[in-house]
């Protein structure tokens, strides 16, 4: 059985973000960490005992899609507002504080969306830098980002208004004696001028935090705690070549050296030279013990004749697990299974559990390893956001171009070859993808894309190469820009660059006669084609 999961030791100062369903909740938690304070996200209806147990230094109530003008919508546990711990409500979070403490919220006739000019009322610890001298010279207006239909029309007893806009008489409110604050606008989005400064004042001035959370500074503490937990036991990790498992391996290796063995499965569905890159970075550079399993033929055989995307994902996942089990049986005395789970995975699986989200694609991760392996789970990155994981990776000596690489799905090229997966298709696709990446890097566009790749279309198209007729396959290029991969927009790559890439692909890869560019957004399309 997979027993307890051991994760990071939490710092003493921590802020709890209670999630009311806003699309910006993760952004709030990330901004808090950027201000040097550890944060975690819990659902708004977390039992108060668990909230007490977390011992928050401050609490932030997120926005949300509901309206407090209806009786049975989400509310914060009343005890949270009586704890004496500073609370900041943002948008819906502010409205619920108001509604719960005796004020009034109404559906406004005029909705405010986007940039809004807001006037400060007097000075406040939250909105004004009261340490600057003289305070009176501080600007009295702010350009903030609003996104709300409801508004506060009467404050609860004890509150004062600290800002107003044309449509919101109470755009920001405070009850300094109870340490309760509310913002109708969103300080977490970059469109709000000085938004991060507001969060910083809440955290440092009002909550009294000391800004000590630095991703780099957790490495030493993490290494000590991994050493203590693991002792002299042996650990295995499935290394995919992706950022999370690579950083996890580098961290564990720093902590326990040779007690860690990584298993890297070359399933024939990897990017060009992936296996060599993993070897170079993990084995040669860091000295990590990596067992490479060459299993191309096994995967292609298992996938032969299969065209359904979900079926393909299941087969790739199943083969992977079988190989992983076979390999781990050969290693003696393994007690721990390490995984590169990161905080968004934790939040998303919690969200998926509570909201019973519809499965659009079943993402394959090592999480599917069977309980019968009798291993304890070690997830040292479980508390970190992706950008923090990347910082840790760089600190641990992984090359930045690996750490900042675009995400690559677990089933790899298996979901980028439409329909049946064949070795020949994978070889052609790898080459096309490599040319696309090379050109993006050369034109300084790689990091402007959140994710870019080529897709293999198993249809043939006529072309002319030299004086000859060609009748070959088609690839499509896809590049998207996104914050969270839940929604995405096709990237507007300059046309001349696209043309040059297409020309290189058709001229350099015999077997491909045509290149298209995918201009779909997500939704309704998804990022991957399958
Ligand atoms: P979609 O295609 O769902 O992709 O819009 C969103 C993000 O998830 C990645 N993705 C996967 N990752 N296993 C993974 O580990 C999968 O099966 C899988 N399918 C999609 C995709 O690359 C994008 O970053």
Blueprint of the fold:
Layout: E1 5-6, E2 14-19, H1 25-34, E3 38-43, H2 48-54, E4 58-61, E5 87-90, H3 92-100, E6 104-120, E7 141-154, E8 160-165, E9 172-175, E10 180-183, H4 195-206, H5 215-230, E11 234-239, H6 243-256, E12 260-266, H7 274-285, E13 289-294, H8 296-303, H9 309-330, E14 334-338, H10 343-355, E15 376-378, H11 386-395, H12 400-403, H13 423-442, E16 451-465, E17 468-481, E18 489-490, H14 495-508, E19 512-517
Parallel strand pairs: 1-15, 2-3, 2-4, 4-5, 5-10, 11-12, 11-14, 12-13, 14-15, 17-19
Antiparallel strand pairs: 6-7, 6-8, 8-9, 9-10, 16-17, 17-18
Helix pairs in contact: 5-6, 6-11, 8-9, 13-14
Helix share bin? 25-40%
Ligand species: xanthosine-5'-monophosphate
Average pLDDT number: 91
- The end-to-end span amounts to 33 Å
Please provide the count of β strands: 19
Looking at the structure, what is the overall shape?
globular
Largest sheet: 9 strands, mixed
Spatial strand sequence of the major β-sheet = 3-2-4-5-10-9-8-6-7
Beta-strand portion reads 15-25%
- Structural category: alpha/beta
Number of helices: 14
Instruction: Indicate the radius of gyration in whole angstroms.
Output: 26 Å
Poorly predicted runs are: 352-357
